[in-house]
What we know:
single chain, five-stranded antiparallel beta sheet, Multidrug efflux transporter AcrB transmembrane fold, alpha+beta, six-stranded antiparallel beta sheet, Alpha-Beta Plaits, 63% helix, transmembrane helix
Amino acid sequence: MKRPVLWLRAGGFAAAMLLLALLGAWLLLGRDRSPIQTDLLAMLPATERNPLAEVAAQRLAHANGDRVVLLVSNADDGRAKAAARQLGHALADNPVFASVTAELPPFDVQQLVAPYLAHRFWLLTDADRQALARPGYDPAQALAQRINEPFSTGVGTRLQDDPFGWLQHWLDQQPWSRSPLLPEDNLLTAHRDDRSYVLVTATLNGSAYDDSIQQRALGALAQAEHRLAHNLPGTRILRTGALFYAAAARAEAEHDVHMVGLISTLGIALLLLGVFRSPGPLLLAFLSTAMGIIAATTLSVLIFGQIYLLTLVFGAALLGEAVDYSIQYLSARANAGDAWEPRQGLRQVRPALLLALGTSLLGYALLGLVPFPALRQMACFAMTGMAAACLSVFWLLPAWLQRPARPLSTASVQGALFLQRFVVRLSGGRRGALLAVVALLLAMPGWYQLRHDDDVHLLISPPATLVAQEQQIRDITGLGNGTQFFLVQGVDGEQVLQREAALDQRLQRMTDAGQLQGWLGLSGMVPSLQQQHASQSLLAPLFAQPQRMRQWLRGAGFRDADIDRFIQAWPGTPLALADWLKSPIATPFRYLWMGEQERAGAAALVLPQGDATGALLREAAAGLPGVTLVDKPAGISELFGRYRRYASLWLLAAIVLIVPVFGWRYGLRHVPRVLAPPVLGIGFTLAMLGYLHQPLTLFHWMALMLVLGVGANYAVFLREGEPHAVHRPGATYASVLLSAITALLSFGLLAFSSMPALRDFGLTLLLGIGFTGLLVPASAPRTTCA
């Protein structure tokens, strides 16, 4: 290949990468919304076998995704309410919030009661139904009890509209009546621990996962909070919402990217300068790696439409593996001395690079088989980055590296040669067999201590302060969480309400036993028509003789005009679900109704409140037709566990697939020696994880697959490079060690990530690559290091 051809090919490759870089810059910066995905739920796989359950889980997760919940508190009741008003006004003046609710508009409590008066004889509580069904029910006694009831501070019916209190009893069980938050001075207020808490809610004018929305909203909140601290000392604000979790996740990911990227870049730069003793190889190595990362980022956004935080941090660590290809070519140039010729050097390293690329792509391809969006994107990112970095060595570096280079530093070569000979001596003969037995005995206790933990919460670690604030808000306000819920399905709305009523019976028993704080569902607000007819039939005997009813009411002191209106209201009409859903009072609860669909029928959600275990909730749903418990965290944890169990088979499959490739290249009898370092590295890594009491997760096994691929690369680099550097023993192993140390400086730093999943990933790679890098001299032919 002539020099003009080299330059032409290099120019074409550089132009293609430039276009790809411009496209990537436009995808990341040139659009209205950033493609960086901070929604942690978006990374998680679908877990529900029922498609409607998965839709419901996503709907519920994002029902309040753009809502911010704030609880303003102060030991002084007046200050707490004044602070809530000031906070509401401050946020309402900022266009980043579409709506803010602090002060409630003035309203008459009767506005809540009036829509139910026409249905008063159809809406009975369980207690009233049981009382009416018992023989000897005394209406006069019920009237006396109603008249002597203490004055109600909540939503109350007028005595003349509801003389027996049936509707009042039913209203007392509604969510707005049971909430710890009560209207005071047009503010929703709760009193607890000698402090007043006032609720303020706001809806963002955009997505909580949009970077610009996050910055503006958090800035507005910080400014308002600063003013409140100055104007009304002692005021505290509790906060929860997707906005805060997304912003925290973004901040942690940016910190990890900067930490991993900066430290690994500086470390690799110092290593390359020390070994190659020239800034030129350093710049070319980083150029090759940068091209890989640019290509990976651009294609990932093009294919997936977004890029996850997990992928960004992983991409910063990819630097240490992508640089391996250029290191091997640069080492070949340094070892050739004055005899260097770029095309000949490329022919020397091409088999090793292609073999190494193939094993790496195999490992990442297996990673991409997992039905987990984040892992698939990481696999796509890595495969694209590896391929682009390798192609840059083939098509770009030969044109730039025409002249010979200084040899590798003497210290690095002599140190590598000493370590290589030491490992070869220890691994040979009877001494090697004895050491293998000792290593096996030392590893066995570690393997024995291995355990697993598939909890999805190991994937993400939200700030403890946010979690504590959310828990405190739930305790004070009674608001539940949406991680567990019941999906109730039926052929139509009536059947759904009937099935939900059966579930309510079980949930009530749990509540009475103190196992559940409560629940939120539609059937408690809109009973099924079957139940309403049953309630109305219980009242029918009392109204069968209007004169007797008139006598009871007159005896209790009611006026004739009020008696006439009450009797004439009988029998009223049942409350229809469709009509109730259209009413203003249904607005906060409409998300519980999934609607009616042709094939799926109708469905509704029931939200348990409190900290009931998944086992208890599953028991509540057991045997009820059409009722399914949807527990998203438990479902994802189960999925992680299932694929963790498969992972060992995938690892074995990867080893089996590598065997014929290495057998074709080196002969089957040499395959065990070539594969021994990565396989032993995996075994020792598992032992160390056991000694460290690290519970195995899916991410540990995914990292072990990469240990296999990277370790096989090192064996290939050493075996392929030794014949070309026979005049300088130790030079090839020096380049392999350089590759291993650069990988440790990048992937190993993930062990210090704020994301638990990446910490598992990084620690496993740190151990696996370390062990493999030290053991790889044992894979070389004995004659090469004598």
